[in-house]
Amino acid sequence: MSSATSEKTTPTATTAAKTATTDPAPAGTGRTGGRAGASRATAADGRIPLRSHLRHTSALVRRNLLWIRQDPESMFDAVLFPIVFTLLFVYVFGGSIGQSLGGGQEAYVQYIVPGLMAMMGMNMAMGVGTGFNQDFNTGVMDRFRSLPIGRGSVLFAKIAVEVLRMLIATAILLVVGVLVGFDITNWPGLFAAVGLAVLFGSALMWIFITLGVAMKNAQSVQAMGFLVLMPLQFGSSIFAPTQSMPGWLQTFTSVNPLSSLADAARGLMVGGPVADDLWLTVAWSVGITAVMAPVAIHKFRTKS
């Protein structure tokens, strides 16, 4: 899967990136002098004030959005995944799993839509890692690291655009969900569930950014992502209740953060217990961000 924000060197993209600064790029950077350039950029990074960091981030966000406009196919995953997954699970599994919920397909729609909202964040997060890796391999990130801009600005801009894509995917999911019978009765709870999914999804992006920087190619990032993605998604309460699962798998689902997110979103949107799962999801999100964000920024600064 490739990220929607995977960059290529185009005149429009280069112009937008250069709006982040009016200073000339330091010499000795690029693929042959990347380590020396990264060291100078790292030293300069500490002298850039917060206001400049924000200006650089907004310029890079604009650059990424311009690239999406030039390459609308990069939005296919955000547009098509919610449609395909919703229709697939509702009409293939809705009847059988819905009976275990005591209401048939209609009951399963109320169950699966909040769960799929939790899944969207993880799918978008994996796309960040593959796109980031492609940017390094095509030299786009070497160009960014040669500019006197905040190193974190590049990463925060990536995450901001992916959060926007996640919100678009979530909106499409909810529209399709309503069309197949999902009943929105608690609008404040709906917005709270969306915010919780975005919080957790943005935390996961730091993990996949780290993988994107550390691994050699996008295929390796994607393979590693699926190795993590599939057990977490299917070993959770996203798609089906966990009561019928084997005891050892129920133990895993009870500590799986995706189960906490799905159950919290379900409670907020359709009713049910919320507090424990809500705070567990927030704790997971804060913990992952606190650990992985510094690691991702450090690896980005020091990658040769």
TrEMBL record:
Domain spans labelled ABC transmembrane type-2: 73-303
Keyword Cell membrane applies: yes
Transmembrane segments: 78-99, 111-133, 154-182, 188-209, 221-240, 278-297
InterPro entries: ABC2_TM (IPR013525), ABC2_TM_bact-type (IPR047817), ABC_2_transport (IPR000412), Nod_factor_ABC_transporter (IPR051784)
Compositionally skewed regions (Low complexity) per UniProt: 1-29
Localization, UniProt: Cell membrane; Membrane
Signal peptide: none
Highest taxon above the source species: Bacteria
Keywords for this protein: Antibiotic resistance, Cell membrane, Membrane, Transmembrane, Transmembrane helix, Transport
Region described as Disordered: spans on this chain: 1-42
Family classification: Belongs to the ABC-2 integral membrane protein family.
Protein name: Transport permease protein
Species of provenance: Streptomyces hirsutus
